[in-house]
Known about the structure:
Blueprint lengths: L1 H4 L3 H12 L2 E3 L2 E3 L11 H25 L4 E6 L2 E6 L2 H16 L31 E3 L2 E7 L5 E7 L1 H17 L5 H19 L5 H19 L10 H10 L12
Antiparallel strand pairs: 1-2, 3-4, 5-6, 6-7
Amino acid sequence: xxxxxxxxxxxxxxxxxxxxxxxxxxxxxxxxxxxxxxxxxxxxxxxxxxxxxxxxxxxxxxxxxxxxxxxxxxxxxxxxxxxxxxxxxxxxxxxxxxxxxxxxxxxxxxxxxxxxxxxxxxxxxxxxxxxxxxxxxxxxxxxxxxxxxxxxxxxxxxxxxxxxxxxxxxxxxxxxxxxxxxxxxxxxxxxxxxxxxxxxxxxxxxxxxxxxxxxxxxxxxxxxxxxxxxxxxxxxxxxxxxxxxxxxxxxxxxx
Length: 255
C-alpha cells in the first residue's frame, strides 16, 4: 500500500524513524509495538496511506456500485463520515466496515462509530436509529430552520471541545498571570484568532461570543491575582480593553 502512494526513499526513512522513536509520557520513554502514538506526527501521514487503499478505493470500487440509493463519504486523516439515502444501505456498510478494517490490522472505535438517522425533524421516525445529530471534527451537526423556513444543516462547536477550550484558557491564565501584560495580550489574541478561524461558521456566532466573554473573564480574574493588592475591577479592566482590545468574534466560513 505504501509503495504506490509514496515513492520517495527519504520519506520512507523518515516514517521508519517516527515509528521507532518511542513516546515520552510524564518523563517515561516507551516504545509501542503496534500502531502509532495518539496525536503523533506520523499518524495523519500513515492514516492517509492506509485508508486511501483500505477505505477510499474500496468504497468507490466495491461499495458504491452495491448501494441501492445515493451515498457519499468524506474523510479527514483517520476520521470519516458516510451518508446513505436508504437505511438498509447504511446498515450493510456498518456490518461490513469492521471486517474490511480487520484485514489490515485496524479497528474501528467502538463508541465513536455510530449509526445516526440524520434526517430533517419532520421526516424522522420513532423507530429510526440515533438522535439525529452527530459530532465530526469537533463540530456538532444538526438541523435548523433558516429565515425562509427551509431546513438547513447547522454546525456548532461540540460541547466537549467548548469545555476543553475553557479549561485550557483558565489553566493558561493561572500559569502565565505573572508574565508581562504585553506578552499575555499577544498570546491571548493568538488563541482567540485561532479559535475563530476554525469555529467561525455560519450559525455558530453565539458560541464565539460566549468564548470571547469567557476569555475576558478568565483574563481579568487572573490579572487580579498577580498579588494580594493588585485587584482589577471591571471599570479598570474595560479601560485596559480599550487600549488593548481582544479580537472581535466574526463569521469567516460561509458554508
